[in-house]
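User: For a benchmark we're assembling, each entry needs the component sequences followed by a predicted structure for the full assembly. Here are entry 17's components. Please fill in the structure.
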Amino acid sequence: MLDDRKKRILQAIVDEYVNTAEPVSSGSISKKKGLDFSSATIRNEMSELEKSGYLEKTHTSSGRVPSAKGYRMYVDELLKEDNISLDEIKFIKEKLQTKVNQIEDLMKIATNTLSEVTHYTTVAIGPKVTKQIIQEIKFVLLGNRMLMAVILTNTGMVRETIINFEEDIYEDQIQTINVLFNSKLKGKPFDSINEPLEDFIFTEMESSANMIKTIIEQLNKVIYEESKLYLEGTNKSFELPELEKAETAKNFINILENKAEVVDLLDNEISKDISVYIGDELDDENLKDFSIITLKGEGKGMGTIGIIGPKRMNYSKVISVMRYIQKLIDEGGL
Amino acid sequence: MLDDRKKRILQAIVDEYVNTAEPVSSGSISKKKGLDFSSATIRNEMSELEKSGYLEKTHTSSGRVPSAKGYRMYVDELLKEDNISLDEIKFIKEKLQTKVNQIEDLMKIATNTLSEVTHYTTVAIGPKVTKQIIQEIKFVLLGNRMLMAVILTNTGMVRETIINFEEDIYEDQIQTINVLFNSKLKGKPFDSINEPLEDFIFTEMESSANMIKTIIEQLNKVIYEESKLYLEGTNKSFELPELEKAETAKNFINILENKAEVVDLLDNEISKDISVYIGDELDDENLKDFSIITLKGEGKGMGTIGIIGPKRMNYSKVISVMRYIQKLIDEGGL
DNA sequence: TTTAGCACTCAAAGAGAAAGACTGCTAAAA
DNA sequence: TTTTAGCAGTCTTTCTCTTTGAGTGCTAAA
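Assistant: Structure for entry 17:
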């Protein structure tokens, strides 16, 4: 589709624009080494790149800015994935080696690290619990009327929830419940909590029937409760020239404020390990001037981490860093 | 100090400025009912109010704006505390009646409600655990090497933490530990965890000595871990004309991003139930254009809720709403 | 196919000029 | 003694006009 020289010029334009945030002129590109043509030649090429939709102008006599299509081409075909320095590697490694008690704590560290290294705002949601396998479920009596249910899943994740009762609870009831829930749920996915209980339970355990119902209700809440949200480096985005425009800044705040939307964003997409969404590819008015890159860690008890940056984000750096973090997590032992 | 008319004029000016965010002219005040003097008279009074430091001008021929001293006078002496409508009362009541399993969940609801009703950004931190009395402490074995400690305090708060071990743990060890920690801690404040253990423990329970050490370490982390932070209505602040100035917006973001500082703000001040901090009274460069009003709920298992708004915040409305929420919480049963 | 050169376009920045919202002050009125 | 009308003076805001400079597109020559 695009010949080699056009690709190289497009690449140079995106790289330049990522750095400067200013429309790129033919002159500045012709000065780059590796592209030793006069500005007039570059100008002709740029004009054609614009006709094919890879570049845009802000006004008749301005330089060029990459279009969404241009960024897409850059991300899919032109981007180099080794944009990470030795210092950064060292920094990331050290941070991710921090000892944690729960795998979810690692999410927090990874989110923070990603934001520190890339200087963009990072959002993450914890892993979804629904499809995880229950390894063990225990009940703890607190006081006389408060019960805590603690559930351990196959990925090593722990979920706990508190259930209040109107009447006193007795130790032998807890025994019964312990046996019941473990036999019912052990080895099954979290959402099998809703499978109907056999009838005999309600006849044989009549005295605890209400209690069992209440517990199931509350466990359901745990399944569908909002995922934990991690957010790092909001202020970093406010250093961007893009956010000097009040409207863009407002859009950005709206994105972050609307937690449900952020969760959807990171969660619902049928994304691969690393995915890039550019501008309005995500069909959200607030996001039209931003891009999102997500890293999925599901299955390893990690959730999804996302970076929100301007459309002219440093895709190369972000993806390189994400790949490296992914590699460290995969190697495990962390 | 200030005669009655001056006070009424100052009050009118603050009220007007809170509404419009524009410097207030003598003309606009003389039109207000209850102040039937000519603009010239008002002008003379305003000039004197400025000399005494209650008002400021933005330039020679501009209207007047309240100074920090002016706001302080307004808050301390002129403010009416019944600025709350029946609709608002109904709305708040309904929200706060939501059934919750933990008292801390009520914090979240209160924070959200406060932001909804006042249209300002609201921050809250959970109650401090340090001085609370331990009512019960239980240990739950998860898998073979993971232990969860669950602590119930006198305010009904529950704290849990996970501790990982390098070696397998046996049920009888848990028994021992249960007895030990309960006899040591029951009825004592949370931070007494650090009181030294009697020597005999380490001789008699030699096999578990390491385990006990690890547990104490981890419980210490729970005490001093960052308080939970609730944040609502960030985007509401971005509707303020004040935040159209890029610098003010940046300051605002910095305040919110710097979690440690927010915690200090809400926590360390020797504030009463409701306290008002105006502009640079808090000696923080970022806060110089903002005011903070805090509501302390400590002791009832609630933490501290704070509203961050512009200096020309609607003190009257915010305080009225806070008082009402405080009343509802005090009446308890919630 | 590439490039030099030049006309043309448009945004950004600055310089006046005009309008309008205030104040402060003075002198008269209450 | 207190209040007020009236007016000069100040400063911001807004508008228009001009200048500057960074770009492009096109043509004709290399």
